[in-house]
Amino acid sequence: MTRELWSQMGSLMATVVFVYTIFERFFPPHLRDRVQAYVQKLTNHFNPYIQITFPEFSGERLKRSEAYTAIQTYLSANSSQRAKRLKAEVVKDSQTPLVLSMDDNEEITDEFQGVKLWWSASKLSTNPQRYNPFSYYASSDEKRFYKLSFHKRHRSLVTLSYIKHVLEEGKEIEMRNRQLKLYTNNPSSGWYGYRQSKWSHIVFEHPATFETLAMDQRKKEDILKDLVKFKKGKDYYAKIGKAWKRGYLLYGPPGTGKSTMIAAIANFMNYDVYDLELTAVKDNTELRKLLIETPSKAIIVIEDIDCSLDLTGQRKKGKEQEEDEDEKPKDPMRKNEDEGNKSSKVTLSGLLNFIDGIWSACGGERIIIFTTNYVEKLDPALIRRGRMDKHIEMSYCCHEAFKVLAKNYLDVESHSLFPVIEKLLGETNITPADVAENLMPKSVDEDVETCLLTLIKALEAEKERQKAEEEIRLKEEKENAESTHGVEENKEKIREDMKENGFH
Ligand SMILES: Nc1ncnc2c1ncn2[C@@H]1O[C@H](COP(=O)(O)OP(=O)(O)OP(=O)(O)O)[C@@H](O)[C@H]1O
Ligand SMILES: [Mg+2]
């Protein structure tokens, strides 16, 4: 018998039950229960189709079931073309605010490894008397659920593989469609008030992508490969017994694209960005509390690490200082003074403890990015491999990077002026930010050639400036060397005079 026939049998049974309910008061209760149990047994015995129900709220009606949401997303993506009656819902924090899913009592067919399965959306009103047609809100007596039906011979395929596949794909689509967020830490004074939290967020809508990022192509591909490997590395990290995190250090002069690279990484990985402003963090305990609240699939960013705090070379000193302070007997009169001095006492060791510590393994899948303009100023302990796994230099604009910018800003891939620019770029240090600024048309009627000529002029001016700077530097060096030489000559002369005069 086909599933359709079984469905019709179901309707027939419902009619029987309905008729039976009308006449139920003529049956004594013990007989009624027995008949009900027999009817159920009989149907189960002959019906080869199994049904699994996924309720919207499980247990307490406080939290929507994650499985229900994932199934809804999966079915919306796979069924909106097939279902005839659809329901439109506004979904918060999604790139597609209006989500279409199949309407109540609608049924669609899915296929998995050649096996057919049926999904239906239903709702059950447990207290029909309380139905209020004028209410804006769903009745609290309404219970929604998805029902999955399949033939019993596919029981293990469905329970072991299909449901897992649906939930994983549903969650994956949710992640893809969600809007990224940029979080910044709140000062601790506001952490515990009404509706206050440690992080505030806004929607993250930075357009930067790896495609629009101007840098050496090989370097770019290397970073992309590293990111992909990290994203797929859950099992690998578990196998080698390392927390699923990766540290990047981006360094280079201002305007070379460090912040742009962070945005491109966030867009590529589809991770939220947690921009940690260290100067707003009082001490290591606060730092720990903030970091504990960062979830999985997050990028934790500390920009300009050399300027945020005096982290450079302070590791030992910081520790010793902390120990000293612990040993000092506390003078009650000095308590207020101490509290006043407590502003921003995050230490390098506190930060390193987090990066290495066990709580960085809670939640997993996190990328930590430090940026700096002066890599040479940083304490080697902070940037050693294993902590900052990848050091990426963002350098001055090379010809390849220029070509990306020309494509972004002017939509050209080649031009007779390109070789002139290539030569000048080889002789001058100019940041991609400056190149971009010069390439941008200043008015609507400025054509490609005018923009390229503007850039050439800027490059020539910069070349002259750098040449003049270099000449001054060389002159100063020469003068210094000469004056040192003069002092030495003088000393030698005095020594000879003293010898002549009999002094030794
Ligand atoms: N490599 C790049 N690719 C594309 N655009 C870039 C690049 N570098 C700079 N830009 C452009 O210049 C602007 C400034 O760059 P960005 O803020 O990323 O530099 P930065 O290295 O973070 O500088 P800072 O050290 O001052 O923070 C960006 O908005 C972007 O438009
Ligand atoms: Mg920056």
Please explain how this structure is put together:
There is one protein chain. The protein is α/β, with parallel strands linked by helices and 504 residues long. It folds into three domains: 48-177, no CATH class; 181-329 and 336-393, P-loop containing nucleotide triphosphate hydrolases (Rossmann fold, 3-Layer(aba) Sandwich); 399-504, no CATH class. Helices cover 47% and strands 16% of the residues. It contains 17 helices and 13 strands. It has helices at 3-23, 29-46, 66-79, 155-177, 217-231, 234-240, 258-269, 284-292, 305-308, 315-327, 335-341, 348-356, 380-383, 399-410, 418-427, 432-439, 448-500; strands at 49-55, 86-90, 98-102, 107-112, 115-125, 142-151, 181-185, 199-203, 245-251, 272-275, 298-302, 366-372, 390-393. The strands form three sheets. Strands 8-7-10-11-12-9-13 form a seven-stranded mixed β-sheet. Strands 1-6-5-4 form a four-stranded antiparallel β-sheet, covered by helices on one side. Strand 4 (107-112) and strand 5 (115-125) form a beta hairpin. The N and C termini lie far apart (122 Å). The model is unreliable at 133-139 and 312-343 (pLDDT under 50). Bound molecules: adenosine-5'-triphosphate (ATP) and magnesium ion. Adenosine-5'-triphosphate binds next to helix 7 and helix 16. GO terms for molecular function: ATP binding; hydrolase activity. This is AAA+ ATPase domain-containing protein. It catalyses: ATP + H2O = ADP + phosphate + H(+).
